[in-house]
Amino acid sequence: MPSVSILVPCYNEQHTIALLLDAIDRQTYPRQDMEVIIADGLSTDQTRAEIARFQQTHPALSIQIVDNPKRHIPSALNRALERARGTYLVRLDAHAVPATDYVARCVEALETGKGENVGGIWQIAPGHAGGGTRPGWLARAIAVAAAHPLGVGDAHYRHATQAQYVDTVPFGAFRRALVEKIGPFDENLLTNEDYEFNVRIRQAGGKIWLDPAIRSTYFARATLSALARQYLRYGYWKGQMLRRYPETLRWRQAIPPAFVLSLVVLSLLVPFAWARGLLAVELGVYFAALLGAGIHAALKKRDPALIPGLPLAIATMHLCWGGALVWSLISFKAPRS
Predict the structure, then answer these.
(1) What global pTM score does this model have?
(2) pLDDT tens digit string along 81-90?
(3) Which structural domain, as residue segments, surrounds residue 79?
(4) Same domain, 256 and 152
(5) Which residues are within 8 A (CB) of 337 and not within 5 positions of it... i.e. 6 or more apart?
(6) 273-301 and 251-268 helices cross at what angle (nearest 10)?
């Protein structure tokens, strides 16, 4: 069987890293043909202790740790790439759990020429604040929002049901030769590195293949503050990437920044009656749509907490992502990592 290197960026993931390693250990792909390379950003919690405990109880699984002093994802992936020896490279995440046939399906898709980069869908699960055993009502709402079309638009890897060619996949699998052809991950983009990598694949004539049979469970953020930080980061670095590749902007990505801009402009014009009226109508329609989505999700999942929780989560995603993207486009200099 072809050798596979699994690349895992990691920083302070003591609550989920063992779940990931256990899922890798249970893969249907031959264990002797896999290696796991964890690029750790010098974690300050018990992440490394958890990895060491797992290594002691699962010696048959090859696990290596490399330091990532820059503490951001693209540098982590590149440090892991430098150590990897596999013919195929599979990028996973420290707070995600792949299905047992994840690696096997990725290798099969690559072997049969489905695409230069292949991946699957996220099944979103609630995060656990502070490592708690049961997710809170907001964590449940955030998990639903992270897969809701109103929250993520047409992001296929969140809710696709058919295999298809797409712009990007979150946790891709690709040949080592691809990195040698188009280069490693761009360390100037602290987020959106996957999308930028896939842009270069498509520019080189390659294809990105998404198969819903390739599944992983992704743990969403557990609190609104963590969700806000995540989407502020996503929005800012999406803006930086759009400066380089403006042609990659999709309609769904233009709506949140346009919405934020309209709120700012109308708020500045509130002395005028027409502006007050437009602002009231816009906010009324927006929150009515969010409330409707919350009620529909609450009835579907039999969880009343989604009525207030889903609107809060989706509004946080829209406002933070859209506002940060606008700021990113009008600012002149990216902040230090």
Answers:
(1) 0.87
(2) 999 999 999 9
(3) 4-222
(4) no
(5) 70, 71, 72, 190
(6) 140
